[in-house]
Amino acid sequence: VRNSNMAIFSKPLSVNPTCYELGHCWTPYCHKASTDIASHVFKESLKIYGTLYLVAGILRKRGLNYYVKKFVPETIRSSLFLTINGTLFISMFCIWRNMLGCLFFVTASFIPAYIAAFTAVLFERKSRRGALAVYLTNLAIETGYRMLVERKIVSPVRNGEVYLFSAVSAVYLYLFRKKDGLGDATQSLFKFIMGSDECPQTLPTLLSEKSAATSGREHRHDHLIDSSRTTKSYQDSYSHRGSRSSLEVDVRKSQGGSIFGDKSSSGGSLGEDETSSAGSLAGDETSSGGSLVGDESLSGVSFVGDETSSGGSLLRDETSSLGSLAGEEETSTESLESSSSRPRGSKALLSSSTSSSLQATIYMILQKLPLLSSLVGGVKEQLRPVLRSFEQLPRHKCCHHNHSCISYVLKGGAKMFTLGYVVQSMINSLSVASRILKKPSTLKNTWFSKLNLKLAAFLGGYCAVFRAVNCILRWIRNKDSELHGCIAGALAGLSLRFYRSITIALYTATKLMEILYFKGIHFYGFPYIKSADIFIYAFSTAFILHAAVLEPHTLRPGYWKFLLRVTNNRFAFMNRKLLDVFGVNSSKIQPDYWPDYEPGFSTLTRNNS
Q: Has the keyword Iron been applied to this entry (predicted)?
C-alpha cells in the first residue's frame, strides 16, 4: 500500500461490492439492516437519555411538574433524534450504492452521513443544536488531527494538549477577570472553580491604589451603585439601535454559548448544556446521553467536556459536566429578551446561586457518606489551628479576599483537590459497582487508589496556581489588572499535565472560538450566519462517521467502543478489506475479519476479493 496521503490520486476512484457485501454484512436485506439499527439505537438511546435527564433533573432540583410534563417527551425526542441519525445513515448508504451502482470515496460514508445528520438534527430541540455543533466540531478536529498523524503529514507534539489548554486558559481567565468578559453560565463555572474573589461581577473595580487602601466599604457601596446606573444607561441606549437590536440581544446573551444563533441560555457554559456532552451523534455515553459515536463508560460524565478515554472521569467531555447538570435551564426567546434587560447585578446573583446550588448538592452527597464525612471533619479539626495562623499573614491592599494571600491560595487549592478526589473516587466506585456488591472490600481499594490523585491534582493545581499568580503579581506590581488573569491562566493551565486529556483541551478551545466569534458579531460586525449550527453539526458528524467507516483506527478508542455498543456491534461487521483499495488502511482495526456471507447473495471469498 502506498503512502495513504496519496490515496485519492493513486487508487481506484470507486469500488463495486454490493451494500450487503460491504456494509450490512449481517443481513442481505437493506430494509432489515435499517430496522435492526433503528430498534437497537432507540433502545440504547432511551436508557442513556432517560438516565441523563433523570440525574440532571435531580441535580437541578426540578419539581414533580417537570417529570410529569417534560421528562418523558424530552427523553423520547432526543432518543428519536439519535435513532433517525443512525437509521438514515445505513439507509442512505444503501440508496447511494444502488443509485450509482458503485461506491466512491465520498459516497461510501460522508454523503450518506451528512444527509442523515442534517435531517436528524432538525428533529432535535433548537436549544440543543448549538452545543451539539460545538461538541461535534471538537471531536471532528481531534479525528482530523489523528488522520494527519496516521498519514505522517504531521508529527505528534509531546504534551501538546497541555500547551493548548494553557493558551486557552489564558484567554478564558483574562475574560473571567474582565467585566462582562464571559456569559453568565461560563462565568458561573469558573467562579465555582476559582472562587468569586477575582470576578469583577461580584467586586467593584478599584479606582486607584490609594482609594483601595483607604475608602473601605463605603467606597465599594458607592461604586456598586454607580456601576448599576452605568449598566442601566447602557441598556437604555442599547435598545434604540434599530433593526439589529433583537439580534444583538441574542448574541450578547449567548456569548458564552450556543453556536451562531442558538437562542438558549443553556448553551452558555463551557459544558453547560446537556447536549454539549449529551446527545451528540459522537458523544460519550453518559456525558453525551446518547451519542452514536461515543464513550461507553459511565465515568465519562464531564466537568468541562468529555466532554473520555479510559474509564472516563468527571472532566471528560465532553460535556456531562457539572456545568451541564447544574447549569441554567433553557429559556424561550421571550424570556431571553426580558432577562437581557435585567441589571447586571441580578445576573451575577443568578450565576452565584448556580454555583451555590452545585456546592450544596455535592456537600449533601458527602454528608450521606458517614466514613468520608467523619474523615473530612477530623482533618479539618486537626488543621484548624494551622489555618488560623496562615490567615493572620499579610494580604496585599489590592487583594479582595478576606484573609492572607497564603491562606487564600491554600484554601482554594485544598477545596478543589478534595472535590476532584471525591468525585473521581465516586465515579470509579460506580464503574465497579457490581464488583463492590460481590466483594465489599473492593470499595476501600477504589477510594484509596492513586489514580484518584490525577483529577485531584489537576483541579487543585488549577485553582491554587491561578490564585497564587494573581496575588504574586499584585505584590510585585503594586496594583491589580485583568492581564494578571491572562498570565495566571496560562500558568494554571499547565496543571493539565497531571490529568492529560486532549478532549478537555479541544473542547475548551472550541467553546472559546465560539465565544470569541459572538464577540466579533457584537463588536466588530462579523457575519451572523443563521442556522449555521445545523450545517456545522451535519458536516462534523459526517466527517466523524466517514472516519468510522474508512478509518476507524483514527477515532478515539472510547468512541469506537461506544459506537459498537449502540449499534449492537454492527459497525464491526462491515467488510473493510474491500475499502483498502482507497489506501487509508481501512481494515487496520480488524485485519483478520471476513464476513460469513449467505450463499446465493454473494460470490465474494477472502481470496478473490
A: no
Rg for the chain, CA atoms, rounded: 26
Q: What was the pLDDT predicted at 364?
A: 59
In percent, the amount of the chain with pLDDT more than 90 equals 29
Q: Are 577 and 17 in contact (CB under 8 A)?
A: no
Q: How many whole angstroms separate alpha carbon 302 and alpha carbon 289?
A: 11
pLDDT band at 179 (very low <50, low <70, confident <90, very high): confident
Q: Which helix (H) or strand (E) holds 15?
A: strand 14-15
Looking at residue 393, its pLDDT comes to: 81
| pLDDT at res. 498 | 93
Q: Is 64 exposed, middle or buried (0-12, 13-18, 19+ CB in 10 A)?
A: exposed
Q: If you write DSSP's letter for every residue of 160-173 in order, what string do you get? A: HHHHHHHHHHHHHH
Residue of 130 and 304 predicted with greater confidence: 130
Distance, CA of 510 to CA of 40 (rounded, Å): 31
The backbone torsions φ and ψ at residue 172, rounded to the nearest 5 degrees and listed phi first, read: -55, -45
DSSP string covering 529-589: -TTHHHHHHHHHHHHHHHHHHH-GGGS-HHHHHHHHHHTTTGGGGS-GGGGGGGSS-GGGG
Query: Quick check: helix, strand or coil at residue 460?
Result: helix
Q: Where are the alpha helices (DSSP H) in 326-432?
A: 333-340, 344-367, 370-391, 405-431
- What confidence score (pLDDT) does residue 544 get? 94
Q: Which amino acid is at 47?
A: K
**pLDDT at residue number 199:** 78
**Residue 290, CA distances (Å) to 135, 171, 376, 523 in order:** 13, 31, 36, 37
DSSP string covering 475-525: HHHSS--THHHHHHHHHHHGGGGGG--HHHHHHHHHHHHHHHHHHHHHHH-
Q: What is the pLDDT of residues 533-582, one digit of tens each?
A: 999 999 999 999 999 999 999 998 888 888 898 999 998 889 999 998 88
CA 193 – CA 413 distance, rounded (Å): 9
Coil, helix or strand at residue 104 = strand
Residue 521 has pLDDT above 80, yes or no: yes
